[in-house]
Amino acid sequence: MAGSSSTWLSSLLLFAGVLPLSAGELQNAGFEKPDGWQIVTRGSGLKAAFDNQTSQAGSKSFTVSIDSQSPTEKEDFAGIEQVLQLTRADKGISFYVKDTYTEGTARYHWMELLLDGEVIWESDVAGGDTEWMKVSLDLTRYLKDGKRVRIGREKYREEKNYTITFRVFERNAVNRFGVQAWADDFILLKNSPTTPQNCEKKIVAPSLRDLLVYDDDGDLFQPITTPEHFETKRQQIIEGMLQGMGGLPERPFRRSLDDFNIQVVNSQIRGRYTKKTIHFEAAEGEVVHAFLYEPLDRSADTKRPGIVGMHPTGASGKASFESWPLCNFPIELAMLGYVVIVPDYPDFGDSKPYDFDTDRYDSGTIKGVFNHMTCVDLLQRHPDVDPARIGTIGHSLGGHNAMFLAAFDDRVKIAVSSCGWTPFEYYETKKGRLKTWALPRYMPPLESLYHLDHTKFPFDFHEVAAAIAPRVFFSSSPTNDGVFPGWGPKAAESHLRNFYKAHGAEQAFQFHQPRAQHRFPWDTRQAAYRSMNDTLDYHFHGRLGLLAERDGAEAIPVLKKSLVDPDPKVRWAAADMLATLKDASGLDMMIKDLRAFSSQAEQLEHSLEVARVLAQLGDISGYELAADLAANGTTHGQRWRAAVVLAHLANLDDTTVTSEGFDPLGVLKTMAADEEHKGVFFVFIDQLHKILQDRRDMIDIFAIAKDSKYHSEPPPGNQFSMAEIFHSVAVRDKDKTWR
After folding, report:
1. Consecutive sets of 10 residues in the chain, 739 residues long: mean pLDDT of each?
2. Deepest in the core among 285, 317, 402, 591, taking most CB within 10 A?
3. Residue 578 falls inside a structural domain
4. CA nearest to 675, candidates 640, 703, 650
5. Structural domain that includes position 406
6. First and final CA of the chain: distance in angstroms?
7. What global pTM score does this model have?
8. How far apart are CA 109 and CA 181, in angstroms?
């Protein structure tokens, strides 16, 4: 209970921070008294103090000092602020400044004056003056329209309180650049200054809606102080989403998979899963087209998590992942043993053409939510799925569809959004861009009801993220995303972190900002999978895999003990997880197991898994087995696993492999030309792109594969074959890190 009390206290303190420090006239304008001003800082390199060594008038002033040996970070600052009442009668403000630096190094330390967070005056300390200089600023341009403060979702209050801030601000980080600056004698002016020194108007960062408030019965904001308030907040966010998207019809109740009228159009065994092309009924007369990825090693007593995968904007819809080397996460999750369903969003893929004007939905977005919730219904009835372990993941269009699904449907325990969101005001990078959101396939009410005025929109994206709490929300928001600008999610990060923390779920908000464009980088995807494994209590290697991911190096002693387990699959799992932790303890046991099982026909696939672990540990013992089965394997599982072993061996130092007369690349090139099985060929191409480190080798193999006489048909929605697509991507990125 002590931890809970401190959480609510933190929440209350957030609201205490908005109370005025003073009202009416500017208090303690010359710093002669110990009141009126509050010191504000970010970072530890800048020191703020009230100084009695120098003053423009009187005996004291305010000073900020930076020691020449104290490093600072970009956007660090130190200053003072005061809340006071301003009216149209206040025409300006004047004050005095000076600093110790008169040389020419510029663009580091800046003195600034802010009004309600907006910079209205600025001066680089470079070339400054050691004597007091008077600054006079015009306030009328900021006060002429008055000020309104939102006090409820639809209620505002006229406000006279303004925050005046003086600070020294770091435009760039410094290591050895000492300086001292002073300010003194702030005076409100009743007449406009004749030569105001205001700076050019700055772009003001959006003021995001506060998350730690809810609307009371009088439509007024109240602080969240009880657990019940969080559920109230969630419902109010959902109500706002429904206002912007339209009503969500009730879904029919399904007792079994038979009630969905699932039709299997095509089925293909690939890797560790079967890929099915299906369509089913979301409601009477409403068909959803989807890919369903089901594990091959199915058993009645083993239940797995189910995942709703969401595709990005692309004409081929769900099929976009099939020809997307750098972001095919549904396929990666299927290889890890998850049951994955990937539906077409309306008017994409097999759902084209779709008439938004004649359906029963107010927006394409709410139609998508209905379909996606139906996918959750289907997964919960699937015989391989644990109905309590459902997640969702998406990129771009799919990224915010994953958020929408999780906000509406609390059966979803984790939502992973890649490049899927930014607060609406940050999306408006140029005038009129918000109209995109009002297209028929998205949310027309944002234009028809709210006239594309984001200040009047009934919800915002950081609120959608808050509605997922206390469940897990994993956000990948790259720094250079040109579709959903990364600085928007970054600005919302602290708001969401505070909200999740107050909700008692601080670890459930997982914010990642890779240095990338509109992409879902490999390392971030792996972090997302680890989060999904942890949240849904699942791992391809079962208990040992979870232990290794959760405990890291601390799990090594347990993993080492498991190397002598009677079950060979437990030994393999332990050696595999030790290898991921950079521990080669399983090497000897895997060599022993490879010798023991490679001569047994029924154990060949398991032997290749062992050989793959050995190859990752730098051992070449599995080469001859892999080379033989790549050409002569009698099952699809033997051949694709052999290719994976050979790809890892190709990554080893040439002398290690060639000294024995081995040629893994040669075998892979032969396989690229001769493999007939469509499923094996897909896994072969996909795994080589994920494993091979030398892109020149990759390009050579893909060049052969793209001329395959067995696999020239393009994937749905593409004009090129899969191997041609992978080859073009490899060539395009030949000078880059492939991930």
Report:
1. 38 40 74 93 95 93 94 95 94 96 93 95 91 96 88 87 97 93 96 95 84 93 95 97 97 95 96 97 96 91 95 94 90 97 97 95 98 98 97 98 98 98 94 95 97 94 98 97 95 97 97 95 96 98 97 97 96 97 96 95 96 96 96 96 97 85 95 96 96 94 96 85 93 77
2. 402
3. no
4. 640
5. 257-476
6. 46
7. 0.87
8. 10
